[in-house]
Design a protein that fits this description.
Blueprint lengths: L2 E8 L5 H12 L5 E7 L13 E5 L4 H15 L2 E3 L6 H10 L3 E2 L7
Parallel strand pairs: 1-2, 1-4, 2-3, 4-5
Helix pairs in contact: 2-3
């Protein structure tokens, strides 16, 4: 049975966490994992669709879409990889509510 993993970073924007999640999205074995990731409406990288990866594309205003994006990722996954410190309280709440596992401990956990 495939594990569903949510990579909680924006793969079409340049910074270390985002590029790390982009590399993971490309290289994770799609026969073992269903991969979920995010992209920004205003990202500075042009990313072609990655076979076997479901992507939530954020929209304007980002203040609203980021909550929907993380909700979508956490509700769909078995395991969440959250390298960024974005929406820590929101993500902690959702992870506990839906009893999801997280690979990287969030600050304050």
């Amino acid at each position: 049975m495939k594990k569903k993993i949510f990579l909680g970073a924006y793969i079409n924007s340049t910074n270390a966490q985002n590029l790390n999640c982009y590399a993971l999205a490309i290289h994770l074995d799609k026969e073992k994992f269903d991969v979920y990731t995010l992209c920004l409406y205003s990202g500075n990288l042009i990313i072609p669709p990655i076979k076997g990866v479901s992507t939530f594309c954020g929209f304007y205003p980002h203040r609203l879409s980021k909550y929907i994006a993380y909700f979508w990722g956490i509700i769909n996954c078995d395991i969440a990889y959250l390298p960024k410190g974005e929406l820590v309280s929101w993500c902690k709440f959702l992870l506990k509510l839906f009893k999801k596992k997280v690979l990287q401990q969030l600050k304050g956990c």
